[in-house]
Amino acid sequence: MLNAGPNQVHTLYVDGDHKIIAGMFPTIGSLAGLPFATQLEAAWSHHLEKTKEYGLIIQITENIRAHSELDDEIRSAYKLEPLARRDRGDKEGALKINTEALDRYSGDGEQWNTQANLLIGFKRYSEALAAASTAVLLAKKGYAEEADPTFLRHLGHGLRAMAICIKEVISPIAAKETAVEAKRQYIASQVDGWNATTHIEGINNMLRKWGLMDQEGIE
């Protein structure tokens, strides 16, 4: 598997095998010559697995933002880079890149979701709730227009961020319904073959931490 090509890596990514991908590409050199799409999957895998390889992620995203000719790749890099910068402690850089993203892609709910997650990290929950609400509205609009399950994942992301904000601003009980709805959207999004287990488990862990799941795992 160490010599897996782009197609094999993509299959692993769709199946949610992020740990395997992160292990396959521990350095920027291990990604040499691979398509930007594969490099992005490696970068996202490192982020999802919390490997703390922030420098690697930022190198990949900066290069893609500068050199890719594909809008989807650029959007994805803009989504990820601010999160890596935040996790590295670069608050100013994270907000700067996210502002650039929103200037360029103001109608992209995922860029708003990134802003929500940044602001959650900075404990600016009321502002984060506004950004997450925008992300949810844009995801609903996208799904209504295109019926693409990708927007259901985006909707799950936005609802998850909203739930975290509601929990902080009001209470965990008040946030429960929104968190459970996020989980429903993640489950529904798997209709196109993408494995959303990581996101579903994240919601379960969040509810468990808030004391809102019983031992059988039923919210």
For the record, the count of structural domains works out to 2
The general outline is globular
Instruction: Give the averaged pLDDT, no decimals.
Output: 94
Strand content: under 5%
Please work out how many helical segments DSSP would assign: 11
Helix/sheet category: mainly alpha
Low-confidence blocks of residues: none
SSE pattern: HHHHHHHHHHH
Number of strands: 0
Report the radius of gyration as a whole number of Å: 17 Å
Largest beta-sheet details = none
Query: End-to-end distance, in Å?
Result: 38 Å
Q: Percent range for helical residues?
A: over 70%
SSE layout:
Blueprint: H1 6-14, H2 18-24, H3 36-48, H4 54-67, H5 71-88, H6 91-104, H7 109-121, H8 125-146, H9 150-169, H10 172-189, H11 197-209
Helix pairs in contact: 1-3, 2-3, 3-4, 3-5, 4-5, 5-6, 5-7, 6-7, 7-8, 7-9, 8-9, 9-10, 10-11
Describe this structure in words.
There is one protein chain. The longest helix has 22 residues, at 125-146. Helix content is 74%, strand content 0%. The protein is mainly α and 219 residues long. It starts with 5 loop residues before the first helix and ends in a 10-residue tail after the last helix. The chain contains eleven helices and no strands. The protein folds into two domains: 1-105, Tetratricopeptide repeat domain (Serine Threonine Protein Phosphatase 5, Tetratricopeptide repeat, Alpha Horseshoe), CATH 1.25.40.10; 108-219.
Tags for this entry?
single chain, 219 residues, mainly alpha, Serine Threonine Protein Phosphatase 5, Tetratricopeptide repeat, 2 domains, 11 helices, 74% helix
